[in-house]
């Protein structure tokens, strides 16, 4: 028994003595690599100026246009002409007067149509050449029919409205008796005269609509409000500056039978700065640039993310890479530093099991990689991953092969960092801004189909031209939506109102 105890003690002593050696020569190789050297330089010196487009879809109900037309077009209208309306009549002249009914507008799907019935009378005068004597003519005839037309209005670059009006007039048969000469059908002649009158009067309707709705003034308010300089972050201080550049006008849409829609787009430049750029001075409202197709809201918003914020997110990422050769690499403890030429330096804590070709590796290493946005997965990923020079110097040939050939590819294919918090924050801010907007009376604004997406990521060296170097990361958020401004009421002014 005593011999057995002595043998056990000797074995235990050997194990204790051999354990450090086994750990050193047989266990995973422990490495701790220093951070890469060199001055951090961003992909861009400054945050890029992003171009955004805000589409304001102004909806005008057809019912309101009907109200406007009935208030602006006179209920009675009259006209006349000096004209020999028959070869046997000299010094001919006629005058007519009619009363219209209610004007009704309709959205046909391709233009606006309107119509109203009218009735009245016409008086014809002149001298009838009866061969021997001249006989006076003074006769009346009842007239009536339907007057209307179609309009396909276009807003011109200088904010005038071209109605592109095509009149339509259907006049009931009108026969004029001229004594012994019998009767003549004067409907064609009156149709020509009344059509010219209708063309002239209807051409006044669109300018009247333009004055009442005052589209230019409403867009001018939005244009001036589009100049924004606002503090969006206070640690560090970051201001967003938005400068409107251009106004776009899409063709009028007739897709909704109850209204017509005019979509106007404001194209702006957006950039970030870490000092107050001051309140911008608005430029005068520019002319419209006509478009052949629709215009939709497309916002690109750059957000500066500090390295500390990015590391808070990276620290939560843990994943495993299966090498396919009997070795698994556990990844955790991610930490980023701004590298050079648009790359991030990533510290990785890993545990690589022993493979068939060599010992495992454990500890902290550094890789360099380009941050990219996975547009499909909507996550932060990495490309161009490779070991840093400092890491290669600390690894054996086998470990270098293992990590450089497999780890780097695994990071590119598997490391995806969730940045949903930034998307949710933008979503909340946009919805809050719409809900709290101070809108003019008679306007309703709605935002539908809002989509927030990650669009791009890049590194920067400084926040503004005169600023000290303060490398960071910029994430570009893309927001699209359907924004509609509906005019739901109209205050009609008297004809003599200024």
Number of helices: 9
Whole-number total of structural domains: 2
Identify low-pLDDT runs: 1-27, 489-498
- Shape descriptor: rod-shaped
Radius of gyration: 40 Å
Taken as a percent bin, the fraction of beta residues is 35-45%
Secondary-structure-based class equals: alpha+beta
Task: Tell me the span between the first and last alpha carbons.
Answer: 121 Å
Q: Biggest sheet, in brief?
A: 8 strands, mixed
Mean pLDDT value: 76
Helix fraction, binned, reads: 10-25%
Per DSSP E runs of 2 or more residues, the count of β-strands stands at 25
Structure, briefly:
The protein is α+β, with helices and mostly antiparallel strands and 498 residues long. Helices cover 24% and strands 45% of the residues.
